[in-house]
């Protein structure tokens, strides 16, 4: 996708979504409104930092993540990793707080406790991450 000729402005739109093969789709704006009826997951409190499996059992691969800002990021992932662990990895790479990240694959929202093996994500698939930073509070 070519950058706008003006040179300023963002390169992506929150209404753009990509499936596991990278095909682009347009989302209705109402899909991007912050949900008001969801229970917030507290991954820091529920002990998701379980010890990692031994290195010989852990098969890592590069997981392609496409941010709603238009940027593609590759993360080191294993099929035993949870989405919560990958959110923390994306935070360490890009500085995006895990609570601002909403991960989607094949049109489904991925919650923090889901493991990659449960989602049927394979090596060359793309996961869409909607970055939903809260508006700054003005006094």
TrEMBL record:
Domain of life: Eukaryota
Name of the molecule in the record: Ubiquitin-like domain-containing protein
InterPro entries tied to this protein: DC-UbP/UBTD2_N, DC-UbP/UBTD2_N_sf, Ubiquitin-like_dom, Ubiquitin-like_domsf, UBTD1/2
SMART domains to which the protein is assigned, alphabetical: UBQ
Domain Ubiquitin-like: 61-136
Organism: Ranitomeya imitator (mimic poison frog)
SUPFAM superfamilies, alphabetized: Ubiquitin-like (SSF54236)
